[in-house]
Structures are given as C-alpha cells and as structure tokens.
Write a structure and sequence with these properties.
The chain is mainly α. It has one domain. Helix content is 58%, strand content 0%. It is flat and about 35 Å long.
C-alpha cells in the first residue's frame, strides 16, 4: 500500500473509531515503552508481555481513578 493510500485509510479508520467506538468522554492515552536492553527478553518469552501489561495496569489505573473529579463515576479500561 502506498503512503498516500495508507494515510487516507488511517484517517477514515480513526474517524470511524472516534465517532462510533469511543464514548464521548475524556480519554487518557498511555504508551508503555520497554528499554532496548529488555526487548530481547520479551521477544523470547512473549508471556512476559501479559505480566508487564498487568503490572502497568495495576500501577496506572488507581492513579487515574484518583485524578477523576469528585462525584465522577469514571471507569478504567485497557486494550
């Protein structure tokens, strides 16, 4: 796929996700990066990615709940 077609497809899909999938509420986007020295470890043992995801969620989700305004029934989700 050429760069022009890819860009067009990306814009269409992102609009679809924003309009139909995401609820009209504030979202927080978090990116978890793995240091270069640890990447071979995760490449060899893919099950560690699940553990990393769970550990990051356990750390970040409580902070997100406390950052919500009082009286806000916020719900944390992850993909």
């Amino acid at each position: 796929m050429c760069a022009s077609c890819h860009q067009r497809r990306t814009l269409i899909e992102s609009a679809f996700i924003a309009d139909t999938v995401c609820a009209p509420v504030p979202h927080r986007h978090i990116i978890l990066t793995v240091p270069r020295q640890l990447r071979p470890l995760f490449f060899r043992n893919r099950s560690l990615l699940s553990e990393l995801h769970l550990a990051a969620s356990a750390h970040e989700f409580p902070r997100g709940r406390h950052a919500a305004p009082i009286g806000n029934s916020s719900v944390c989700g992850k993909i």
